[in-house]
Amino acid sequence: MRAKLSYAVTAAVLVFYFVLVGSRGVMLIQSGTLLTVTFGVAVLILPVIGLWFLWKNTQFVRKANQLAAELDAEGGLPVDELKRSPGGRIDRDSADEVFAERKAETEAAPDDWRSWFRLAIAYHDARDTPRARKAMQRAIALHDGRPVQV
Known about the structure:
Layout: H1 2-31, H2 34-74, H3 92-108, H4 113-125, H5 129-144
C-alpha cells in the first residue's frame, strides 16, 4: 500500500510540474516573436514526453500487478528464499542461485508467462533492473496473447 501511495504522490507532482511547464510554454508562444514561439514549442515538447512516459509506466505497473494478483491466486508466486545480511540486504550469491533456477525454468517453458514473471523477480533481486523490466514485459505480452518481441 505504501508503494502505491508513493507512486500516486510522485505521479501527481509530475502532472503538476507538466502543467506548470506547459503553461510557461503557452505563455512563450503567446508572446508572438520567432524566438519565444520557438522556445515555447520546445518547452511544450517536454511535458508531452513526460506525460507519455508516465502513462506507459503506469500501464506497465498496473499490468504487472494484475499478473502478480493472478499468480498469487494460483499459488504460483515465488517464495522469498533469499539469504540476507543482518541489515536486510540480499546476498548476491543467494540471488544468483535463485536466478539460475528461474532461468532454467524459463528455458524449459519459454511460452509460459508465469516463468517469465518469476524470472523478472529473480532479475530484480539480482539488481538487474533493465532485464527485470524486459522479462516482465515479455510476461505481460505472453499473458495478453500478443506477439513477443525478441
